[in-house]
Amino acid sequence: MSDALSEPMTMVVSEGAVVVLGPSGIAAALTPQAAEESARRLLAAAERAREGADDQPADAD
Fold first, then answer.
1. CB 33, CB 40: distance < 8 Å
2. Which of 17, 18, 26, 59 could form a disulfide with 22 if both were Cys (CB 3.0 to 4.6 A apart)?
3. Burial degree of 16 (CB within 10 A; 0-12, 13-18, 19+)
4. Rounded to an integer, what distance in angstroms lies between the CA atom of residue 12 and that of residue 38?
5. Is 33 helix (H, G, I), strand (E, B) or coil?
6. How far are the Cα atoms of 5, 6, 8 from residue 2, in angstroms, in the given order?
7. pTM for the full model?
8. What angle do CA 36, 38, 40 make, to 5 degrees?
9. In the prediction, which pLDDT does 2 show?
10. Strand 27-30 relative to strand 10-14: parallel, antiparallel, unpaired?
């Protein structure tokens, strides 16, 4: 994917939420629980991408 961002996102805590800031104006606020699950899914997807997998979104629900 040629338009994939190469800069990592930054995470900060504000008012009890995890705020994700990234390049190109990416911003999101997550509850701690949503942040934890998102982190697990992001890591799993990164591992699959390194292996060359091309699959559906990682949502365990």
1. no
2. 26
3. exposed
4. 15
5. helix
6. 9, 10, 16
7. 0.78
8. 70
9. 77
10. unpaired
